[in-house]
């Protein structure tokens, strides 16, 4: 396990609840689960969350901003995704994902991204189905109750809480800007995490 410096201090991860999963643990997510709390909630390994945030940020930064479609039906993800799209230039798709968005050129909101980044594999299932159909890589946040099937690259994280989502999207936006050379690595990111909902 890498011992490099975390993307944010451990306390910031803990306060956001990014590591707090659900009472349901899927076998697919067991490699990311650190322990079970007495109340039955699964706790994810923060080191692994941090490592995956690095990997995903590097991966997404290889694409032109407009080639990345960020999708979220969940209400708590709307503000973080709007801010993420504003910061990175990625295309947001917030609310219900309309059938045909990736597969029907006759649909007025048809789009051809090169990668999709979904907030929740259950709530955003239609997007995943269409991305698979047209062969687009799929990145997704996955909580302890998800399965990894059809997801090419996952970030284990609490994908329901506002603070958790705010922090995750803030970190990825910041790291993508660093990877693209827009933000120097030794300069503080001027946008506070609170603007992302964190």
User: SSE order in H/E notation?
Assistant: HEEHEHEEHEEH
Q: How helix-rich are the residues, as a percent range?
A: 25-40%
User: Structural class, please?
Assistant: alpha/beta
Count of distinct strands: 7
The N- to C-terminal Cα distance equals 27 Å
Unreliable stretches: none
What's the CATH class, please?
Answer: Alpha Beta
Walk me through what this model shows:
This protein has helices at residues 10-16, 46-61, 78-88, 125-134, 162-179, and strands spanning 33-36, 42-44, 68-72, 91-94, 115-118, 138-142, 153-156. With 198 residues, the protein is of the alpha/beta class. It has a single domain, classed as Rossmann fold (3-Layer(aba) Sandwich), CATH 3.40.50. The strands form 2 sheets. It has a 5-stranded parallel sheet, with helices on both faces. Strands 1-2 form a two-stranded antiparallel ribbon. Helix 1 crosses helix 5, helix 2 (46-61) packs across helix 5 and helix 3 packs parallel to helix 5 (162-179). The longest helix has 18 residues, at 162-179. The chain starts with 9 loop residues before the first helix and ends in a 19-residue tail after the last helix. The mean pLDDT is 92.
């Amino acid at each position: 396990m890498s011992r490099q410096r975390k993307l944010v201090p451990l306390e910031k991860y803990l306060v956001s609840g990014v590591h707090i999963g659900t009472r349901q643990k899927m076998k697919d997510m067991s490699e990311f689960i650190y322990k079970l709390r007495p109340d039955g909630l699964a706790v994810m390994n923060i080191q692994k969350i941090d490592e995956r945030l690095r990997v995903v940020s590097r991966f997404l930064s290889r694409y032109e901003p407009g080639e990345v479609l960020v999708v979220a039906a969940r209400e708590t993800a709307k503000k973080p995704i709007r801010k993420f799209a504003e910061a990175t230039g990625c295309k947001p798709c917030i609310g219900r994902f309309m059938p045909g968005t990736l597969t029907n050129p006759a649909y007025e909101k048809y789009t051809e991204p090169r990668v999709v980044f979904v907030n929740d594999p259950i709530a955003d299932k239609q997007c995943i189905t269409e991305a698979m159909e047209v062969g687009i890589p799929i990145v997704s946040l996955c909580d302890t109750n998800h399965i990894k099937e059809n997801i090419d690259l996952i970030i284990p994280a609490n994908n329901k809480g506002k603070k958790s989502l705010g922090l995750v999207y803030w970190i990825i936006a910041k790291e993508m800007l660093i990877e693209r050379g827009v933000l120097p690595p030794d300069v503080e990111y001027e946008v506070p995490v609170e603007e992302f909902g964190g």
